[in-house]
Amino acid sequence: MLVISRSRLCLPLIGIRTRIYRPSSSSAYKDEDELDDITPTLAELAKRKRKAEWKRRQSGNFLDHIIVQARGGKGGDGCVAFHREKFKPFGPPSGGNGARGGDVYILPTPNLTSLASVTRRARAGAGSHGQGDWKHGRKGEDLIIRVPLGTVVRELVDGRKPKDPLESEDDSLQGLSEEEAEIKRLDKRWVHYPMHEESNLDRDDFKAAQKAIEREERARKREELANTREPMHLDLTHPMASSLSASQPC
């Protein structure tokens, strides 16, 4: 029977009998064996959890492909100065050279598992400027890009880069005869005084200057062909030393 009085609820008394459970010695030994089996499992789960949290702290999501715009540091400017000293009104030059910019290195690291920590725009430090009193600038700070082991680095050729002036000239002369191409070259290289173009073409000094320009262009083409290199391709499967001498500059 229930009696309701405002907000208080009264229930009839019910007797409750309690019993103390005492496990036997055999069951206690069994529980200890189960605990011994569970302990390594819990330790392994805790280890996996710590590893997952560590990976998450590396900058979030897993990333295995990225395009990076890497650029070396800008070189410093030189300084023009002259030494000034008492009783020496016209001192010798005392300027300093500007320092070269920093380099960009790619260093494979065994502790990394993702490219999420790699910045998309990497640029080394700029070199400082020269100063008076024969003070040269300081080299720019190098930049080290750390990547996981097994990373493959390929250099992409920028198609937006303007062509060399000589290459552009050769492309514009395609389809023309030899005489027409020669006339086009002369029009681009020389600006004649009005009404004196024909007389200039027959002069010996003009022909000598024309041959000197052609020799210079051929030497420039040979130099460019000698300095032409294939795009960089690296397969970083082995760890390298932390020193910059063992790293691969790009």
Q: Give me the CATH superfamily of the domain at 62-158 and 234-250.
A: GTP1/OBG domain
Tell me the series of helices and strands, N- to C-terminal.
EEHEEEEEHHHHEE
CATH class of the domain at 62-158 and 234-250: Mainly Beta
Helix content: 25-40%
Tertiary shape? flat
Q: Mind telling me which CATH architecture of the domain at 62-158 and 234-250 this is? A: Distorted Sandwich
- Determine the structural class based on helices, strands and strand pairing: alpha/beta
Query: Biggest β-sheet: count, sense, barrel?
Result: 3 strands, mixed
The CATH topology annotation of the domain at 62-158 and 234-250 reads as: Spo0b-associated Gtp-binding Protein, Chain: A
Strand order of the largest sheet: 6-4-9
Q: Pick out the low-confidence regions.
A: 1-16, 242-249
Q: Percent of residues in beta strands?
A: 5-15%
**Integer average pLDDT:** 76
- Rg from C-alpha positions? 39 Å
Give me the number of helical elements: 5
Overall number of strands = 9
First and last CA, distance: 89 Å
GO molecular function: GTP binding; GTPase activity
Region (Disordered): 196-250
Pfam families: GTP1_OBG
Keywords: GTP-binding, Nucleotide-binding
Structure description:
This protein has a 3-stranded mixed sheet with strand order 6-4-9, with no helix packed on it. It has a two-stranded antiparallel ribbon with strand order 1-2. It has a two-stranded parallel ribbon with strand order 3-5. With 250 residues, it is of the alpha/beta class. The chain has helices at 25-56, 165-172, 178-189, 197-201, 204-227; strands at residues 3-5, 8-10, 69-71, 104-109, 121-123, 143-148, 151-154, 233-236, 248-249.
